Recover the amino acids of this structure.
C-alpha cells in the first residue's frame, strides 16, 4: 500500500498526552517507524470526530500514514464513518498515491466505502487542464463484507453533486431530461422514463408549472422516471424534486448584495437529489416498491412572455393562485408535480424536496434541512431514512392557523405570505396539492445542498430519499 489510514476512536488515545492506548494502533505505529505516534503528539490528536493527521512513514511498506478521528466508539454514525473514507481517499489522492488501505471500518463498511469513492472523485469537468488521478485502488483492511451498497450510494451522491455543481448553461431542463433517460437506459431491467413536453403539460392543465417557464427560451421538461421492484402488490411511492435549473427571480428580480443570483444554478438541488436517489435505487433494486421520481424542470427568467406579479394561475387540480412574488416560483412548479404524483401515479406516500426558502437557512443554518409533514408517521419515516443515510434534518412545525396568511381576495390563495415563518407557509402552500390520505412530507434542503467549506455541492438528499424509497418495501 502506498498509504494506510487508521480510524481512531477517542478511547484509543490518552486524552492528556495523545499517547496511543490501543494495541492495534501501537502495532500500526511500530510498522511506520514511530511516525504515527510522533504526528499524533505534534498535532495533539485525540481521536475527536472531524480531526486528522498525516505524515510520511519511516518504515514498513506504506509511504504515507494517517489517522482520522471517529469520536467516541459508541457514538460513531454513518456520517463520521463516511468522513473516514473520504478524508483518507482525498489525502491519498493529494499525495499522489496509487493504493490506499483503510483500517477501522468494521461494522460500517458500506459507509466507509461510499466515503472513499466520493473522496477520491474530484470534479474537474470544466478545467482546461485537469490533473491526472493517481488513486486506483482502495482496500478496507481486515474486512470481507460486501460493499456494493456503499458503491451504489456513492455513485448516486456523485451524480447529485455533479448536477448541482454544473453551470446553468450546461444543466438545462433538457439536460436533466437526458440524465433521466440515461438512468433508464442503463437500468432498463427495472427503470422506465417518460418526458412530458409543454403540449403534454398543457393537456394536463399544469398552468402553475408552465406559468413559471413562460419567459425562458429553454423548453420545460416534465420528467417521470419509474422504478418497479420485484414482488407483487407493490407499494406506490413518489419522490418529487424541484427542478429550477436557473432562477433569476423573474420580475421580482434577485438583485443586490446577498441576492445570490450567481449561485442560482443550485436551485435544482431537489431534482439533483431526486435523480441521485433514482440512480441508487436502480442499482440496489429494493423489492416490494414501485417508485416514481418526478421533476417539473424549467427556468425562471424575465421576458415579454414572463409571469408578472399579480397574475393568477390555475394548477392541475383546479386551484387558483395569485402570484404576488415571481421569486417564489419553486412551489408553483411543485404544485403540479405533486398533483401528478398523487392523481396520475397513484402514490400513497410522497416526499418532495426543494431548495425552497431562505427562511429555512435562517432557522436551521446551512448544514441541516427542514422537514415538514402533517402526519407523525410520515415524518418519522423520513427521519429514520435521514439517520440511516447520515444526513441531518429537523422537523419543523406547520400549524394550519398560519394558512390565513396565504389567503387571497381574488383567488384561492397567494403564493407567498408575510416575511415571518416563510418556510412554514411555503410548506402549507404545498399541502394544498396533495390529498389528505397521502403520507406526504416536504424537505426544504436550501441549506445543506451547498457548502463552500466542503467544496461546493454536497450531494445532500440522494441517500436519504433512496433510503426512504427502500423503507416502503420492507
Amino acid at each position: 500500500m502506498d498509504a494506510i489510514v487508521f480510524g481512531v476512536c477517542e478511547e484509543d488515545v490518552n486524552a492528556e498526552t495523545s499517547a496511543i492506548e490501543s494495541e492495534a494502533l501501537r502495532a500500526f505505529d511500530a510498522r511506520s517507524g514511530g511516525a504515527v505516534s510522533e504526528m499524533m503528539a505534534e498535532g495533539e490528536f485525540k481521536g475527536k470526530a472531524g480531526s486528522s493527521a498525516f505524515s510520511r512513514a519511516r518504515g514498513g511498506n506504506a509511504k504515507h500514514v494517517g489517522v482520522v478521528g471517529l469520536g467516541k466508539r459508541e457514538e460513531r454514525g454513518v456520517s463520521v464513518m463516511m468522513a473516514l473514507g473520504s478524508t483518507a481517499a482525498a489525502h491519498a489522492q493529494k499525495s499522489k498515491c496509487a493504493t490506499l488501505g483503510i483500517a477501522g471500518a468494521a461494522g460500517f463498511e458500506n459507509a466507509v466505502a461510499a466515503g472513499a469513492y466520493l473522496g477520491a472523485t474530484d470534479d474537474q469537468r470544466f478545467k482546461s487542464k485537469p490533473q491526472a488521478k493517481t488513486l486506483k485502488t482502495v482496500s478496507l483492511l481486515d474486512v470481507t463484507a460486501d460493499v456494493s451498497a456503499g458503491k451504489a450510494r456513492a455513485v448516486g451522491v456523485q451524480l447529485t453533486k455533479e448536477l448541482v455543481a454544473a453551470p446553468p448553461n450546461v444543466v438545462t431542463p433538457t439536460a436533466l431530461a437526458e440524465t433521466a433517460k440515461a438512468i433508464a437506459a442503463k437500468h432498463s431491467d427495472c427503470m422506465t422514463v417518460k418526458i412530458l413536453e409543454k403540449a403534454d403539460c398543457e393537456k394536463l392543465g399544469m398552468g402553475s408549472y408552465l406559468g413559471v417557464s413562460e419567459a425562458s427560451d429553454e423548453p420545460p421538461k416534465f420528467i417521470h422516471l419509474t422504478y418497479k421492484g420485484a414482488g407483487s402488490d407493490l407499494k406506490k411511492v413518489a419522490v418529487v424534486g424541484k427542478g429550477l435549473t436557473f432562477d433569476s427571480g423573474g420580475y421580482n428580480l434577485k438583485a443586490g448584495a446577498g441576492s445570490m443570483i450567481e449561485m442560482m444554478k443550485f436551485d435544482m438541488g431537489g431534482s439533483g437529489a431526486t435523480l441521485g436517489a433514482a440512480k441508487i435505487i436502480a442499482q440496489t433494486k429494493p423489492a416490494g416498491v414501485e417508485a416514481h421520481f418526478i421533476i417539473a424542470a424549467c427556468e425562471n427568467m424575465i421576458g415579454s412572455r414572463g409571469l408578472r406579479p399579480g397574475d393568477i394561475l390555475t394548477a392541475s387540480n383546479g386551484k387558483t393562485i395569485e402570484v404576488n412574488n415571481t421569486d417564489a416560483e419553486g412551489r408553483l412548479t411543485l404544485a403540479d408535480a405533486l398533483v401528478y404524483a398523487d392523481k396520475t401515479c397513484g402514490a400513497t406516500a410522497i416526499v418532495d424536496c426543494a431548495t425552497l426558502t431562505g427562511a429555512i437557512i435562517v432557522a436551521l443554518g446551512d448544514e441541516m434541512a427542514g422537514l415538514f409533514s402533517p402526519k407523525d408517521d410520515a415524518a418519522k419515516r423520513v427521519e429514520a431514512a435521514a439517520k440511516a443515510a447520515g444526513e441531518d434534518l429537523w422537523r419543523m412545525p406547520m400549524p394550519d392557523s398560519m394558512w390565513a396568511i396565504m389567503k387571497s381576495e381574488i383567488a384561492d390563495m397567494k403564493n407567498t405570505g408575510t416575511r415571518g415563518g416563510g418556510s412554514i407557509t411555503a410548506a402549507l402552500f404545498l399541502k394544498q396539492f396533495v390529498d389528505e390520505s397521502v403520507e406526504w412530507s416536504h424537505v426544504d434542503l436550501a441549506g445543506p445542498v451547498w457548502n463552500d467549506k466542503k467544496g461546493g455541492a454536497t450531494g445532500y438528499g440522494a441517500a436519504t430519499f433512496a433510503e426512504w424509497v427502500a423503507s416502503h418495501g420492507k
User: Anything to note?
Assistant: The first strand starts at residue 3 and ends at 9. The chain has a mean pLDDT of 96.
